[in-house]
């Protein structure tokens, strides 16, 4: 495909190809000279209609390491504030001869809509509660790096599954790679269609930790809650917050992941986030190599 819109649309072979390409780029990123000329004639626009720290910087660094020309757009200080539409905004940016668009938007399906209306390659950097494909790729790549393989591993995704695009993309990606996936959270924060996703559902976080090899811990997405969901943050942290005491009761070592941003003391305590169990900053590091791989492979089908 010319686009990366979601993990649902790609195969396990596609994911393996992205990982092998990312292995090469990770090696490049560890050299004194981190830059390669691969995308020298390509111009990429990073179009963000929602806040971001990791994804935005990681894509921009990936593009610069590949020698692409890069322009950045944030809706919050743009003419969107004067009423310009998504399609007009993007078409204006594209008329400046942009080849690829990396887009984050609060509406599920926004990059899919765009892909039917513009000629450039599109990479989804997160569309509302729907998908965040490069996050799932970097997460699975980090599990593969830490544990040798993803196939056969037990991964528990703990938190606000209902509002999380990271959860949905992770479920698709991990299942395609042969992992067993559990979701764990209060019933009010699980989607109604959860039974159709082929995951194990657990409501007790200690049981989820005892079951898994890897716990991927998600924050409560207050900004996406249309109505006020039960539980409150205080109640959530009381029943679901992961701390060192909980890990100490296990008879094994588990890997702790979090896509960021962490709400310390809510879903995850600092005594775990900053411990030797955590690969959180390795996930961020791997994000650059994964995004280089995705951009490089998509540029090849231009
Ligand atoms: N993981 C992630 O998407 O973080 P940002 O929202 O900061 O990009």
UniProtKB/TrEMBL annotation:
Reactions performed catalytically: carbamoyl phosphate + L-aspartate = N-carbamoyl-L-aspartate + phosphate + H(+)
Keyword Transferase recorded: yes
Keyword annotations: Pyrimidine biosynthesis, Transferase
Pathways involved: Pyrimidine metabolism; UMP biosynthesis via de novo pathway; (S)-dihydroorotate from bicarbonate: step 2/3
EC number: 2.1.3.2
GO molecular function list: amino acid binding; aspartate carbamoyltransferase activity
Superkingdom classification of source: Bacteria
Binding site for L-aspartate: 82, 165, 219
GO biological process entries: 'de novo' pyrimidine nucleobase biosynthetic process; 'de novo' UMP biosynthetic process; amino acid metabolic process
PANTHER family in the record: ASPARTATE CARBAMOYLTRANSFERASE, ORNITHINE CARBAMOYLTRANSFERASE, MITOCHONDRIAL
Family that this chain belongs to: Belongs to the aspartate/ornithine carbamoyltransferase superfamily. ATCase family.
Role noted for this protein: Catalyzes the condensation of carbamoyl phosphate and aspartate to form carbamoyl aspartate and inorganic phosphate, the committed step in the de novo pyrimidine nucleotide biosynthesis pathway.
Subunit relationships: Heterododecamer (2C3:3R2) of six catalytic PyrB chains organized as two trimers (C3), and six regulatory PyrI chains organized as three dimers (R2).
Name assigned to this protein: Aspartate carbamoyltransferase
Protein's gene: pyrB
